[in-house]
Amino acid sequence: MCGIIGYIGLKKATPILINGLLRLEYRGYDSAGLSTIEPGGLSIMKDKGRVKNLYKLDGIDDLVGTIGIAHTRWATHGKPSKENSHPHLDNSNHFAVVHNGIIENYNELKDFLIDNGYTFYSQTDTEVIPNLIHYYYSKDSKNDSQRVLRAVQSACKSLKGSYAIQIISTYLPDNIIVAKKDSPLVIGKGTEENYISSDIPAILSFTNEFYFLDDFEIALIERNNIEFFDLNLSKIDKKVKNIDWNAGSADKNGYEDFMLKEIFEQPISVRETVGSRLTENENCCFDELNFNKEFLLNINKIYIVACGTAMHAGLSGKNAIEKLCKIPVTVDIASEFRYRDPIVDKNTLCIFISQSGETADTIAALKLSKSKNATTLAISNVVGSSITREADYSLYTHAGPEIAVASTKAYTSQVVLLELLAIYFAEILESYSFKELNNIKNEILALPSKIEATLKCSDDIKNFAKQIYQEKDVFFLGRGIDYNTALEGSLKLKEISYIHSEAYAAGELKHGPIALIENGITVVSVITDEQLVEKTISNIQEVITRGAHTLVITNKNLPTNNIDKVILIPDTYTLLSPILSIIPLQLLAYYISKEKGLDVDKPRNLAKSVTVE
Ligand code: M6R
């Protein structure tokens, strides 16, 4: 999705803005641009294509302004083009605006502005914003220091939809104004300088101190001062948050791609996520939660709601909670849940999982559950992210910044956190044998070293990828908990290799999909559940008989005679196996993408965090 960077300080803004945009590239975009306050007025430099193209624009080297705003655009309204790129100026060239989000009533506002003499030069929804600000500015008869702020306030009150906006103006040459509703925005506090960004990693090398703007808030930013207001322009006292990620964790550290680095970071990210929540011979501990037996006994059902990979992590959470706590769990896709009128009441616990914590559908689903009086619990990787500010309770995975669009270490951290949560509930509810719970806990503590061992399959997977990278279709099969892994493995492959792939519960094969199996087609199977080995093996034999080329990921000793490649991973408790069995599939997607010469970290059409519907 679109990305925002802003700088106000004593240094030249342009190199800082471009550097920030480069760090936001992973979010996905099709054009880039920036605007600075120059001695002669506002500069605008923008074009479609990559951020680095900005360096080639005429006059970019002459910019001296120390205040500027910048943007990467992911086209929604209007094709990728120079005209549609941000920043957008108002007709008088006094206000420049960059915007993330979607203005739903832009047609109505555009008609209003056209009736009032304004002209539009782009097809974007964004262009109404600078003109609306100009409209309110020119209607304001009071010429005091708050005039621009009041114009921004009135414009924000007129906007429907979602926005994170940055505004600079020749009328306010020592400030940047930012405002937000339903799109993320953070302000990084420096010394004699401040930074603005749509996410933390892009400005992590400058500061660890962040302000998180909430919906319907406006900030007036100076080099050494920041004031926060609500939409009535009443002042808000906002506390700065310290984020303990280090800047190096947002770099590649010698790896060819962020995705590979993040796959190999999983022993650490899982260990960090478990952290002090689990210590030998102690009950599982979540300081952030104060759930007691009475509260949990009153929970009639649990919803786990998320999108994409986070939803797949939720499926393993369901397996764990239902088995250990005997509470029914429904896993739902956030974009479905929010429009379904789900049966949620004060006795429902709704768990929302989001790596970024900024996914628009997940946030909307959370707000809906709150309106139905459910208890809400957010699981996110980003401290202070929107879902954590919205939910009654929040838990963090400690995976560190995840930059690659394809989620890997966040997924395994989410799964392990859900396993811990299920154990925590089960210990309070006394719903499962304590001896068995202890066995699972010991296995969780052993996971980091088992992940290390699993990663050793990398070369074998690379060789298999070389054999199949030109395939058009790949099928993933699994039963029970392995079906969750098949779904996630298939998503990874689609995302970064552009190969069509489908995941099926192996038992469903005969009910239709087997019609697609023909000579040479690749079928990847996951087998980790002791009780289901025989069943899945039978399904594999059925596809082999029809000529399929097969890869099996397993922790069992299988009869391997006619399977093309078996990857043996360490054994573990079945509930935990998705944390290990997904690793070869992450590597498979990665190496296929590399063989095809694709951009692994920034796959086409995809954005790291989907902040619009
Ligand atoms: O930030 P979130 O966890 O809410 O993101 C949800 C999905 O957009 C995300 O998992 C997406 O499916 C990834 N690209 C998967 O690799």
Number of strands: 26
User: Which class of secondary structure composition applies to the elements?
Assistant: alpha/beta
- Helix coverage percent: 25-40%
- Please tell me what the overall shape is: globular
Tell me about the largest β-sheet.
Answer: 9 strands, antiparallel
The fraction of residues in strands falls at 15-25%
Which small-molecule ligands are present, each listed once?
A: 5-amino-5-deoxy-1-O-phosphono-D-mannitol
The CATH superfamily of the largest domain is identified as Aminohydrolase, N-terminal nucleophile (Ntn) domain
What are the SSEs and their pairings?
Elements: E1 3-8, H1 13-24, E2 31-38, E3 41-42, E4 45-48, E5 67-73, E6 88-89, E7 95-100, H2 106-115, H3 128-139, H4 147-158, E8 163-169, E9 176-181, E10 186-189, E11 194-197, E12 209-212, E13 217-222, E14 225-230, E15 235-236, E16 241-242, H5 258-264, H6 266-274, H7 293-298, E17 301-306, H8 308-325, E18 329-333, H9 334-340, E19 348-354, H10 360-371, E20 375-380, H11 386-390, E21 393-396, H12 409-429, H13 434-455, H14 458-468, E22 473-478, H15 481-497, E23 500-505, E24 522-527, H16 533-545, E25 549-554, E26 565-568, H17 577-595
Parallel strand pairs: 17-18, 17-19, 19-20, 20-21, 22-23, 22-24, 24-25, 25-26
Antiparallel strand pairs: 1-5, 1-11, 2-3, 2-4, 2-5, 6-7, 7-8, 8-9, 9-13, 10-11, 10-12, 12-16, 13-14, 14-15
Bound molecules: 5-amino-5-deoxy-1-O-phosphono-D-mannitol.
Commentary on this structure:
The protein has 613 residues and is an alpha/beta fold. The protein has three domains: 3-247, Glutamine Phosphoribosylpyrophosphate, subunit 1, domain 1 (4-Layer Sandwich), CATH 3.60.20.10; 250-455, Rossmann fold (3-Layer(aba) Sandwich), CATH 3.40.50.10490; 456-595, Glucose-6-phosphate isomerase like protein, domain 1 (Rossmann fold, 3-Layer(aba) Sandwich). It is built from 17 helices and 26 strands. Helix 11 (386-390) links the parallel strand 20 (375-380) and strand 21. The longest helix is centred in the C-terminal third of the chain and has 22 residues, at 434-455. The radius of gyration is 26 Å and the shape is globular. The model has no long low-confidence stretch (mean pLDDT 93). The structure holds 5-amino-5-deoxy-1-O-phosphono-D-mannitol. 5-amino-5-deoxy-1-O-phosphono-D-mannitol (M6R) is lined by residues 307-310, 354-356, 359, 362, 405-407, 495, 609-610.
